[in-house]
From TrEMBL, chain A:
The keyword 4Fe-4S does not apply. Pfam families: GerA (PF03323). The chain crosses the membrane at residues 370-392, 442-463, 469-490, 497-521. This is Spore germination protein. It comes from the Bacteria. Residues 1-68 are annotated as: Disordered. Residues 39-67 have a biased composition (Low complexity). Keywords: Membrane, Transmembrane, Transmembrane helix. Residues 1-10 have a biased composition (Basic and acidic residues). The keyword Transmembrane helix applies. Belongs to the GerABKA family. Residues 26-38 have a biased composition (Polar residues).
Automatic annotation (TrEMBL), chain B:
Belongs to the GerABKC lipoprotein family. It is a lipid-anchor. This is Ger(X)C family spore germination protein. Residues 23-198 form the Spore germination protein N-terminal domain.
Length: 581, 389
């Protein structure tokens, strides 16, 4: 189906997000069914208002639809959407055949829909609808069909008897077809019964997920090796396994009119600022897209400054990282179908930290942290500094070094700036090729790459050997930045700085650095200054920024936003008394 | 796009087009001057000769076998004659295909003829022009400065590097442009520059720093030989290390040497009853290097005796320098500055006739020399002659 531009104006269409309490596998028992009923009815009445008007207007064409859409001349987008809306707004009726017809019409041309019609032993005629592959067939056979057809309901024709008979705990009740369609779409099995005006929804989702592996982009030497997978339930489980507390809240929200991607906002009640959670909910609810395929798209919708090259939400594949940040009062977003969790608010310095920092001894981790910051500076300013000094400030170099560079640059046809840009762009291209290439040709690229950035380039007289060294150091240092999106941002801002250096020398570098610094100062992630705790200075947090203090000394949590601040992180009375005795 | 964004973008783009990288110059277009010499021609014009670095790129065969060493160290000397330094530089530029670059010039040599006339002119250029380094070394050459630059040194990269390294060793003076300017601005208006002497031997020439030249009112006044220059270094507190050798009359006529690794000196002026006095306080510590006398250096009294000997030798050396300075009447010892600092009132009164006072200044010495270690051998029995009965 095509999505014309004006489609947005016709919402709510097929993909209106289901209410949050009807999460696909919430495992809600039938005992709280009444509550669900009320809400569903309220929703139903609200949605029936517009659709009935449309029904009246398109009444004449309804016959054409029923006799088969293909026979009619190509329908307009509005007609197709209106028909879908109309079908979805229908309530579940007491007549089994009507319900089956509606389901068949909704899932027309869906080859994977299974409508299983059967008679309950000593009970009403029934029909079980589910999607092939999404639902677990063995579970359906053993837990639904076997009891219903072998045990039966002892002549009772109401749903309570059926509920008693079926041995699946995760059950919901659906009153209208919008709900029903959503549930079927998630892989639930829906049971219609003759004479019952609601459908029973059984959670028989067949979880097909890849196994939990170590995230390749964030490896550690010491520390847990679990990484998130594409299934949200597995991911939330991983979090729950680390935070065995009811205070760990996971607010669900569904994003995408067609994809209906389940997303949860995870936070710890009592630590996270409730206003922060509210703000996140508000920003998420403003997302109205047809499809959400990855958390990176959510990031673009909720971040404060979409034009900045710097990531304003931290992304990670590691549940231990998410746990640590939740304990600092931050909130995390986990989305179905994406192994990457988002953490908000994020600061520049938190993205300069590796999980490894907290698994190694604090002195070593501090040293590595400083090394990382030093090399980040080299990444940003290394090539620019080289260009500036060689084009404008030759007197700054020690004489011997200048003479050596002069010798090596003698035959180079390009100015230093062009040479630097050439090599840096080539390196970026090689890096990108290395990621995208199929594994089989990877070695070929590395061989060619070594030739391009190496002795062959020097021998060909295109670049000088000091330049190759500068590029190599820059390349290595850029990968010291633990966060990939921050690393890539830093790698790319060095090109404008290089241009500034080529135009204005060291003065240009200073100007560019100032512009970047001012930009970083103005950036905010959910109200938290991007450079905090460095600017504005939060002295209590410097011990987890400039150094990595050992756990018993990290007394307080960072203060992120608002007045809700659970300050004390640890209590050391016992620790101190034991050590002193 | 927002209007502000558009304006900013336009401004940025125009900045790129307008600027045109006006100061940018590639290394390939630089004539890197490693040293410069200034001479006076017969018709009183300035002859500027510069030593240029010739970057000869490694050929492809050489690059395969690692960095080549010999061929990269080429220098050439070019000269130009002009009315003043700037004029000579402009004329020099006419004869070069690359832009003259002073930024790496470490050594400036003044010819003796020019020095005798006045070094005002080259110093003015070197301090006013932004490119020459203030920390470049200044030398006075015995003959024409050009000869020093033309000398091809076998050890260092070029003769400029050789001279600079020699100066750093501080066997002679090590005077930078900044230091010379500072000294000239002091009360006595004197300066001392090291002299480069070219030694001719077996058809080979090898320059080395031999002695120093004293300047009074920007004009070369006197030549000091090496030993007097060493005495001068003591007075100026520029001695880093020194070896003092003295005969040992108490120990059978042998000689002993001490290597002083710590040395400092201080000038303490005093004016009493109209008599201008200067006390030279010297503090030195050293190790005994050699002892061919019969004195047993493991005994404390003998060490004291040795120390007395060394003190005498040192004092004699400094006294000689002071005598020469007082005789010539040029105060390059720094006395004037000390009197000015400690007795500003008296100094201001008798500033004008300092040239008469200076030769009459009474100099006394207060030398403290300690032989800290007497060496591993102590009393060297193996090398002693058998005692004749």
């Amino acid at each position: 189906m095509t999505h014309p531009k004006d489609e947005r104006s016709t919402q709510p269409d097929v993909g209106a997000a289901p209410s949050s309490d009807a999460m696909p596998d919430n495992g809600t028992q039938s005992t709280n069914g009444s509550n669900t009923d009320n809400q569903n009815q309220a929703q139903q009445s609200a949605q029936q208002q517009p659709s009935q008007e449309q029904k009246a207007s398109s009444n004449s064409t309804n016959a054409a639809y029923n006799s088969g859409i293909q026979m009619a001349p190509t329908p307009s987008v509005e007609e197709v959407l209106a028909y879908q809306r109309q079908l979805l707004s229908l309530p579940v009726t007491g007549k089994l055949q009507d319900n089956i017809n509606t389901v068949r019409e909704l899932f027309k041309d869906c080859s994977d829909i299974i409508v299983h019609e059967f008679d309950i032993l000593n009970g009403p005629a029934a029909s079980l609808v589910y999607l092939d592959g999404l639902s677990d067939m063995r579970l359906i056979d053993l837990q639904i069909l076997t009891p219903l057809q072998h045990t039966g309901t002892d002549g009772a024709h109401n749903k309570e008897a059926v509920v008693k008979c079926v041995t699946i705990s995760a059950m919901l009740e659906a009153m209208d077809f919008e709900n029903v369609a959503d549930k079927i779409g998630y892989g639930h099995a829906v049971l219609f019964m003759d004479g019952v005006t609601s459908a029973l929804v059984y959670d028989v989702i067949n979880p097909i997920i890849r196994s939990i592996e170590e995230p390749e982009a964030e490896t550690v030497v010491r520390g847990p090796r679990e990484g998130f997978v594409e299934s949200i339930r597995t991911n939330t489980t991983m979090l729950r396994r680390r935070l065995h507390t009811p205070a760990l809240k996971m607010k669900p929200i569904f994003i995408g009119r067609y994809t209906k991607t389940a997303t949860v906002i995870a936070f710890i009640e009592g630590i996270a600022d409730p206003n922060l959670v509210k703000e996140m909910e508000g920003r998420l609810s403003a997302i109205d897209v047809d499809g959400m395929t990855d958390t990176s798209l959510i990031e673009e919708w909720v971040e404060d400054n979409p034009l900045s090259p710097f990531p304003q939400l931290m992304s990670t594949e590691r549940p231990d990282v998410v746990t640590a940040h939740l304990l600092e009062g931050k909130i995390a977003l986990i989305s179905d179908g994406s192994p990457v969790a988002l953490i908000a608010p994020a600061s520049f310095m938190s993205m300069m930290q590796s999980p490894e920092d907290f698994y190694q001894r604090s002195i070593v981790a501090t040293a590595i942290r400083w090394l990382r910051m030093l090399f980040s500076l080299i990444t940003i300013f290394g090539p620019s500094f080289y260009v500036a000094v060689l084009s404008y400030h030759q007197e700054m170099l020690p004489t011997s070094l200048l003479l050596t560079i002069a010798v090596s640059r003698e035959q180079i046809p390009f100015p230093a700036l062009v040479e630097a840009l050439l090599m840096e762009i080539t390196f970026e291209a090689l890096r990108e090729a290395g990621i995208r290439l199929p594994r089989q040709v990877g070695s070929a690229v590395s061989i060619v790459g070594a030739l391009v950035i190496g002795q062959a380039a020097i021998a060909a007289g295109i670049v000088s050997s000091p330049m190759v060294m500068v590029v190599a150091i820059t390349a290595v240092s850029s990968f010291l930045i633990p966060n990939y999106s921050l690393g890539i941002a830093i790698r790319f801002i060095r090109f404008p700085i290089m241009l500034c250096a080529g135009i204005l020398g060291l003065y240009g570098i200073v100007l560019a650095a100032l512009v970047i610094l001012i930009h970083l100062m103005t950036l905010r992630s959910f109200g938290v200054p991007y450079l905090s705790p460095l600017a504005p200075v939060q002295t209590s947090q410097l011990k987890d920024t400039l150094i990595r203090t050992s756990s018993p000394h990290a007394l307080t949590r960072p203060h992120l936003t608002g007045s809700f601040f659970n300050r004390i992180r640890i209590r050391t009375e016992l620790y101190k008394s034991r050590r002193n005795s | 796009m927002q209007p502000t964004c558009r304006t900013l973008l336009t401004l940025l783009l125009s900045a790129i087009l307008l600027s045109g990288c006006w100061d940018r110059i590639e290394i390939n277009d630089l004539a890197i001057i490693t040293a410069a010499g200034v001479d006076l021609t017969d018709n009183d014009r300035i002859k500027l000769s510069v030593q240029l670095f010739v970057p000869s790129p490694p050929s492809s065969e050489q690059s395969a076998s690692g960095p080549s060493s010999g061929s990269t160290n080429k220098t050439v000397v070019r000269d130009a004659i002009g009315i003043d330094m700037a004029d000579a530089t402009a004329r020099l530029q006419e004869r070069l295909s690359r832009k003259v670059f002073w930024g790496q010039a470490d050594v400036f040599v003044f010819g003796e003829k020019l020095a005798r006339k006045s070094i005002k002119e080259p110093l003015e250029f070197l301090t006013r022009h932004p490119h020459p380094r203030e920390r470049a070394n200044l030398f006075v050459s015995d003959g024409p400065a050009e000869n020093v630059l033309k000398w091809n040194t076998p050890i260092e990269r070029n003769s400029a590097e050789t001279l600079r390294e020699m100066a750093i060793l501080q066997t002679g003076l090590n005077v930078s442009i900044l230091q010379a300017i500072e000294e000239l601005s002091e009360e006595a208006h004197t300066a001392v520059l090291p002299v480069v002497h070219i030694l001719q031997k077996d058809g080979e020439s090898s320059p080395f720093i031999s002695g120093s030249a004293t300047f009074k009112d920007l004009r070369m006044a006197d030549r000091l030989d090496t030993s007097v220059t060493r005495g001068l270094l003591w007075l100026r507190n520029e001695i880093k290390s020194a070896t003092i050798t003295s005969p040992v009359p108490q120990g059978g006529g042998g000689i002993a040497s001490v290597y002083l690794f710590h040395a400092s000196s201080k000038l303490v002026p005093s004016i009493k009853n109209g008599e201008w006095r200067m006390r030279v306080v010297i503090d030195a510590t050293g190790n005994l290097n050699e002892n061919t006398s019969t004195l047993d250096t493991t005994k404390e009294p003998n060490i004291v005796k040795l120390q007395q000997n060394f003190k005498r030798t040192l004092q004699k050396r400094i006294e000689e320098t002071v005598k020469i300075a007082q005789k010539s009447g040029v105060d390059y010892l720094g006395f004037a500055e000390q009197f000015y600092r400690h007795y500003p009132k008296q100094w201001n009164k008798s500033k004008k006739n300092w040239d008469e006072i200076f030769p009459k200044v009474v100099v006394s010495y207060d030398i403290r020399l300690v032989v800290a270690r007497n060496g591993l051998t102590g009393d060297n029995k193996t090398l002693q002659q058998s005692e004749t009965p």
